[in-house]
Each structure stands twice: as C-alpha cells, then as structure tokens.
Amino acid sequence: MVPAKKFSLKTGATIAMKQPMIQAALFDAKSYDREYFENAVGRGDIAWHYHEFRLSADTASLASGRDAVCVFVNDNVDRDCLSELAKVGVRHVALRCAGFNNVDIAAAAELGIAVTRVPAYSPHAVAEHAVALLMTLNRRIHRAHNRVREQNFSLGGLVGFDVHGKTVGIIGTGRIGRIAAQIFRGFDARVMAFDPVPKNDWAAAHGVEYTDLGSLLENGDILSLHLPLSPNTLHLFDDDAFNRLKPGAFLVNTSRGKLIDTTALIRSLKSGRLGGVALDVYEEEEGVFFEDLSDCVLPDDELSRLLTFPNVLITSHQAFLTREALAEIARVTTENMRRVGSGTDFLEGTEVR
Ligand code: NAI
C-alpha cells in the first residue's frame, strides 16, 4: 500500500492525503467490470489497474507493487502463481465470483495471502435467467426472432407447450433453486424438488413438494439444476440419468457444466429422448465462454455438435450478468479490499480459508 499523494498547484509541493491508496490489479477485465468497479460504492481509495489477460504464474509479476489482485472464474491462482504474487508484495486475492476452485487456498494460507469471494450477489439474476432460457427454448423465441428479421412470418416448427400444469423438478434448493421454484409456481406448475438438506418450511409455504432424485428424473417435464459441482455431483447427468428421463423432458443447467456428461447429453438428444436442453454453463467452457471467437475455428467437437441441434440453447455463462449483481460484486470486493487496508475483519462469510 502506498500513501496517496496530491500535487499542490500553489506551492509545487507534494502533499500526503489522509487516506492510504490501495493499489489493486484486476485480471481478465471486461468492459462491464471496469464500469462497475470504477463506480463501486466506497471505492474512493482504491486505484484499479486493469489487465485483459488472465492471472497465472506467468502473468503474476505484472501485479508488482499492487496490494491486491481481483480475479474471476478462469484465472489460474495455483501455488506457483501465489508464490509469485507473494514475492511482489500482494497480500489479498479477491475473487469477484462465488466459486474458488481455481485458487490454491492452502498455499495462500502458507504464504500469508488472504482470499475472499462474493458468496451471493444476486440469486434472482441466475434464477430468472434459468426461466428465461426455458421459456425461450420452449416457445422457440430465438428461432422466431431470426425468422421475423428475415421477413419469414411462418409458424412451422415453433410449437411449444404450456408450463402451466407441467411438473418442474428443481435439483438443489439453495438460494437460487428456491427462487427458481417460486417463479415456476407462478406459472401454476407442479414444482417438485430434491435436496439432501430439504427446507421443509419454505416448501410448505410455497407449495413445493420434496421427493427423491429418481422420482424427479422420471416425472419431471422440466428439470432445472441449482446444485454445486462436487466429486459427488460430477456427471450427475450421465447415460443412466438421461435414460430415466420422461421422454421429451427439457433440461436447464445454469449451475456448473460438469454436472452433465456432454457425450451422454448428445446421445440423449440424438435419440430424441431429451426434448431440449438450455445451457448457461458447459463442461469445457474454460477458454471459450466469455471470449469472442467469431473469427476462429472451434476446436471443441462436442460444443460444435451441440450448436447444430434445433432444440439446444446455449448462453455463455451470463446468468449472473445483471446490473444489480455486478454492482453487488463490485461493492463487496471493494469493501473487502478496504478492510485489508485498514486491518479490519472481512465482510462476514466472504473469507475463504
Ligand atoms: P447454494 O449453496 O445456496 O445452494 C446449493 C444447494 O444445493 C444447497 O441447498 C445444497 O444442499 C444443494 N445440494 C448439494 N448437493 C446436492 C445434490 N447432490 N443434489 C441436490 N441438491 C444438492 O448455492 P446457490 O447460490 O443456490 O448456487 C447454486 C449453483 O449455481 C452454484 O453451485 C453455482 O454452481 C451456480 N451459479 C451459477 C452462476 C451463473 O452465472 N451461471 C452464478 C452463480 C452461481
């Protein structure tokens, strides 16, 4: 941390300002990051240095002279990277996302580098996007939009279904899953849910029925995933799960790509058993999602295949991308950086140890 200084026009002297200036490097910076971090509530004493490339052991030296680095889901903050950061004086890694699987937490602790994250920024943003994806896919809005723009006003192939009266299966009823369930209840759908830690009072209040996973797979007309990725949930949707689905079921995944075995997904789509799939996350999204690859040949054959199906809708991990979520991410990250600067505790629940 360097003391902030101001040049006096009157005397020509450099005057030390009251607040210390925190120097922070923000990696994998996008235009919307700059906008929201520049305007974050309470960012007054933080000087941001934006880098469009990602943080890794190779780029860590660029954080020389910074007190903190701010990273996102695809920055590679492994032990080598953290060692480089420690060498150049960085004391805080602030994740501007909830997940922290890309940071070696044990190494950070050994090196005396604090790690924080933003555990919840807008569960509404993600739940609303899940429902938007389902409705777009179901009512073929994406196809209708393209057609009408070409003055093709025909309706062939655009038949959807009423969500009203259908059975929606919510897998994972945490912050996001509960909101998604409530939105689907607004359609007057029957909402069933599975979660190893059921919230019975909430379910009773909102007319949601808990059941086991097998029953959801077999009875759901629509399934929406809102559970974390873990060794237990990796490839939760494999050939076996797809073969148990109600024929014609729609699947929505806004959680983590690796919950679905992509090879099994493609098999299920080709067989016609799966009615449609909407994905905001993809098993091999790293290095692809968030990037403009419109001039490139896609090296991922499975992603290329998925893009050919008429009943597949993909967005590029944008479920979180609302004004409210970005403002909250910037606010929490900024506040935690100021707390390192002033030696106060981090915001509750944001430190990762
Ligand atoms: P949360 O931690 O509040 O809820 C997760 C729920 O899943 C918990 O109730 C937990 O008991 C349940 N769960 C754990 N294992 C399960 C299993 N095997 N089967 C069913 N349920 C299980 O998490 P939150 O905030 O609701 O987030 C859900 C997921 O959404 C996150 O794990 C993350 O992967 C994803 N996410 C995606 C974003 C995007 O932009 N696409 C943004 C933020 C989160």
What can you tell me about this protein's structure?
The chain has 353 residues and is α/β, with parallel strands linked by helices. Helix content is 33%, strand content 19%. The protein has helices spanning 31-38, 79-87, 105-110, 123-138, 141-149, 175-186, 200-206, 213-219, 239-244, 262-271, 301-306, 323-342, and strands at residues 2-7, 14-26, 46-50, 68-71, 92-95, 114-116, 167-171, 190-194, 208-210, 222-225, 249-253, 274-279, 312-314. It is globular and about 60 Å long. It starts with a strand and ends in an 11-residue tail after the last helix. The model has no long low-confidence stretch (mean pLDDT 93). Bound molecules: 1,4-dihydronicotinamide adenine dinucleotide. The site of 1,4-dihydronicotinamide adenine dinucleotide (NAI) has 28 residues, from α4 and α6.
Key terms for this structure?
Rossmann fold, 353 residues, seven-stranded parallel β-sheet, alpha/beta, six-stranded mixed β-sheet, binds 1,4-dihydronicotinamide adenine dinucleotide
Major beta-sheet overview: 7 strands, parallel
* Structural class based on helices, strands and sheet pairing: alpha/beta
- CATH top-level class of the largest domain: Alpha Beta
The bound ligands are:
1,4-dihydronicotinamide adenine dinucleotide
Strand order of the largest sheet: 9-8-7-10-11-12-13
Regarding quaternary structure, how should these chains be classified?
Answer: single chain
As for the number of domains, it is 2
Enumerate how many helices there are, as a single number: 12
CATH fold group of the largest domain: Rossmann fold
- Bin the helical content: 25-40%
In total, the number of strands is: 13
